[in-house]
Amino acid sequence: MTTTDLTIRGDRVVTPGGLRPAAVHVRDGVITAVTDRGGPAAGDVVDAGDHVVAPGLVDIHVHVNEPGRTEWEGFATATRAAAAGGVTTIIDMPLNSVPPTVTVDALTTKRQAADGQCHVDVGFWGGIVPGNAAHLAALHDAGVFGFKAFLVDSGVDEFDHVDGGHLEGAMERLATSDALTLVHAEAADVIAQSAAVLDEGDPRAYATYLASRPDDAEVRAVQQVAAIALRTGGRAHVLHLSSAEALTPLRHAARAGAALTAETCPHYLALAADDIADGATAFKCAPPIRAADNRDLLWTALGDGTIALIATDHSPCTPELKRRGDGSFAAAWGGIASLQLGLSVVWTHAQARGHVPTDLVHWMSAAPAQLVGLRRKGMLAPGADADIVIWDPDATWTVDAPALEHRHPVTPYDGMTLRGRVSTTYLRGQMIYDGHAVTGGPIGRLLDREV
Length: 451
Ligand SMILES: [Zn+2]
Fold this sequence. Notes:
With 451 residues, this protein is of the alpha/beta class. It has 13 helices and 17 strands.
């Protein structure tokens, strides 16, 4: 039980009603009131001036990789990166940890690994793999926020992908409990047909890798997931949408009444294929970063709500597996490390495209909290947890990868100048990042899905 009394005042407070001068009042880690800026203030009084005061980010797509691949990342380092990036809640993916989170026992193992290490709140996704159908209901009851499935090779042996029939069977089982199913939506047959280019082309050329994962793989998979969502009545969520061509089946699904949402990632909104140098494997992810005109269409889809939210898909590994030595896109691990940078990367480009802080808060805090049912997260309102990020929307700074908190100094953003910098992060009213360093102990909690 915390006892901090805290008032945070500012000119630009993102409230559920919009951006306005206001004061956020906190007691025992919970927001008790949001009042006019100039009213009475109790306890510690922080004046944020013209910095943005916003709910902490909720990143529903993070690969912590512990236990089992803790040399890639881990709960301590990932949650330190989160705190420094203004992220106060993460939901951990069921792979690339060993064991993967596909049974209740594996969830217990993961929770034991995380316990006492976390600087932000952490929830867990379960997984749908061949052979674990009988475990899904118990995993859901044990508190996972939903289930992830791959329609294509996942990249690790212990987390096999499923086909459409298997996915449909799982979603039928889960529909009665209104569980959320997350899908890595690339069609395995399209990827298989395209794989030959990796052998024929220059493995260091980004164009070779891009050609191996065409738009059509996403289009076909999104069509398939939409059809399954419609038939089963289950809730499905398309992870890391990269191809703007896949927006068409998403829009059709929405009109048809499917319970289908989608996310995209900072790298698809900020980066473009033509700018990726040969051998720059820090940029490798799946689905791939595509052309600049594709990126423009993703921004349009965020603006019109076709894409519901942004999540980082933070997925680090060791520098060796990223093939920094030979720069082989064919051989490198696919995954981008950006948990600490999501706010700044998205704001840099959102602001340049005419968006305002309330848009970022919607995409990165409110909408993800709502999708996963975290009713006390993602908003500055009475009754919510006092998870708060104060950030300077006008500050520019240059990313220095070794100075980031995640385990390995690998990120495609190294050396880039970004706009928007986190100045303070609070978790339940306790400061966890002071603008220079992570502060205090690992006070993050392990979250269960709220029922
Ligand atoms: Zn992922």
